[in-house]
Write a structure and sequence with these properties.
Layout (H helix, E strand, L loop, with lengths): L2 H7 L16 E6 L4 E4 L1 H7 L3 H4 L14 H12 L4 E8 L5 E12 L5 E10 L1 H74 L4 H28 L7 E4 H9 L8 E4 L6 E4 L1 H19 L3 E9 L3 E8 L27 H11 L3 E5 L4 E7 L1
Parallel strand pairs: 7-9
Antiparallel strand pairs: 1-2, 1-5, 3-4, 4-5, 6-8, 9-10, 10-12, 11-12
C-alpha cells in the first residue's frame, strides 16, 4: 500500500499534520491497529530501515529486549484508551545497534471519538543515555573506591590504636617479666637439683604433685619468654645454617609425652636466617601441637623447597581449630589455653615476616605452613 493511498484511506490531510511532522522530529503514523502507514526520513535514518521495509509492519520490528511485556501492555492500554503516552524507549536498528528515543504517542480521533490513527513523535537521546550510563558507572566505581578507602582508613586507625595499646602493654609486661625472671630461674635451678633426692622419698600421689610443680615452672618460663620476645625489637641476625640443626635444638624446649610421636623430616636445607629466632618459632609451633593433642597423637614436620622458597609444615592429628577461631589465631592476646599470653603465634608471625616470609594455618588436619625465601 503506498503512502498517498494509505493516508487517503484514513482520511488524513497532510496539511493538518505539518506542525507535527516537522523535519527535525523522528515521526511515524500507524493505523488504529498499530500498523505503520507513514515513516519520515528521520525515522528511516535512525532505524536503518527503508520506508518500504517499514510500511505495513508493527513497531515490534524494533523491540530491543530492554523493556518488559508489561511496559508495552501499559503503553498500548494508555493510547488505545485515547490518552497520550510519554516515555523513553530503547529500540534495535536493522543492523543490530541500539538507540534511545524520547517518545510522545498521540491518538487522533474522529468526530465519534473513535481512534483513527496514532502519531508518534520522537527525539534521539542515545548520546544522553550513553553519558548517563557512563556517569552511573563512574559513580558506582567512586562509591566502591570510597567504601574501600573508608574500610582501609578504619583498619589503619584500628591498627594504630591496637599497636599503641600493645606497645604500652609490652613495656609494662617487659618490666614485670624481667622482675620475675631471676627468682623463677633460682626456683627452677633448686627444683632440678632436688628432684632425684625428693622423688625417691615420695609416693605416687606426691610424685604427681612434684611433676605438676615442675611443669608449672616450665609454663612460667615459657610465658615470660613470650612476653620478653614480644617486647624486644631487636633486628634479625641472618646466617646460613642447617634447618635440621635448628629443629633439633628447638626440640629441647618442647614438652612432650610418651603418647605423642613427633616425626622430623629426613631431608635438610640450608637457611639464611636468625638461628635463635627460627628455633623459637619451631619450638612454639611444636609445643602448640603437643598441647592440642592432649597426650595422644602424632606431629609431622615436613620440609620442601622450590626455586624461591623453603616450605615448612607442622601438622598434628588433633581435633583441629574451631572455625570461629581461624581468623583470630594470629591476633595478639588471643588464646584458647588455660595458661599462656596469646603472644606465641604473634611472635612467630612477626619473626617469619622479618625474614621476608609468611605463615598461615589450615584445618583438617591442623597444619601451620611457613614459607621462607632461600
Amino acid at each position: 500500500m503506498g503512502l498517498t493511498s494509505s493516508l487517503k484511506k484514513l482520511n488524513l490531510n497532510l496539511s493538518d499534520l505539518e506542525a507535527i511532522l516537522a523535519d527535525h522530529s523522528i515521526t511515524t503514523v500507524t493505523d488504529n491497529e498499530g500498523i505503520i502507514v507513514y515513516a519520515n526520513k528521520k525515522f528511516c535514518e535512525i532505524s536503518k530501515y527503508s520506508e518500504e521495509e517499514l510500511l505495513g509492519q508493527n513497531h515490534r520490528l524494533l523491540k530491543s529486549g530492554e523493556h518488559s511485556d508489561q511496559f508495552y501492555n501499559k503503553l498500548w492500554t494508555t493510547i488505545s484508551g485515547g490518552r497520550n503516552w510519554d516515555g523513553e524507549i530503547k529500540n534495535r536498528a536493522k543492523d543490530g545497534s541500539f538507540y534511545w528515543v524520547k517518545t510522545t504517542i498521540i491518538p487522533v480521533m474522529d468526530s465519534q471519538k473513535n481512534i483513527k490513527y496514532y502519531v508518534a513523535i520522537r527525539t534521539d537521546i542515545t548520546r544522553e543515555k550513553q553519558m548517563q550510563e557512563k556517569l552511573l558507572h563512574a559513580e558506582k566505581q567512586l562509591d566502591q573506591q570510597n567504601l574501600s578507602l573508608a574500610a582501609k582508613v578504619a583498619m589503619k586507625s584500628s591498627d594504630i590504636v591496637k599497636n599503641e595499646r600493645l606497645a604500652t602493654i609490652g613495656t609494662m609486661a617487659s618490666r614485670i617479666a624481667h622482675d620475675l625472671k631471676n627468682p623463677l630461674t633460682i626456683l627452677h635451678t633448686y627444683a632440678d637439683m632436688l628432684t632425684p633426692e625428693i622423688l625417691s622419698k615420695l609416693d605416687s600421689k606426691d610424685k604427681e604433685k612434684w611433676f605438676r610443680l615442675q611443669n608449672s615452672i616450665f609454663d612460667m618460663h615459657r610465658i615470660i619468654d613470650d612476653v620478653l620476645d614480644f617486647a624486644r625489637t631487636s633486628e634479625i641476625n641472618k646466617k646460613k645454617v642447617s634447618f635440621l640443626s635448628i629443629l633439633r635444638l628447638s626440640m629441647n624446649h618442647v614438652r612432650s609425652s610418651y603418647g605423642i610421636i613427633i616425626k622430623l623430616p629426613e631431608n635438610d636445607v640450608t637457611l639464611n636466617c636468625d638461628r635463635r629466632k627460627i628455633e623459637g618459632v619451631m619450638s612454639n609451633l611444636i609445643n602448640n601441637a603437643v598441647h592440642a593433642l592432649d597426650g595422644q597423637g602424632e606431629i609431622d614436620i615436613s620440609l620442601s623447597l622450590d626455586s624461591e622458597f623453603v616450605t615448612i609444615k607442622v601438622k598434628d592429628s588433633g581435633p583441629g581449630i574451631p572455625d570461629e577461631n581461624m581468623e583470630k589465631i594470629f591476633e595478639p592476646m588471643f588464646t584458647t589455653k588455660n595458661t599462656g599470653t596469646g603472644l606465641g603465634l604473634v611472635i612467630c608471625k612477626s619473626i617469619v615476616e622479618q625474614h621476608g616470609g609468611n605463615i598461615s594455618v589450615s584445618n583438617n588436619p591442623t597444619t601451620f605452613t611457613i614459607k621462607l625465601p632461600l
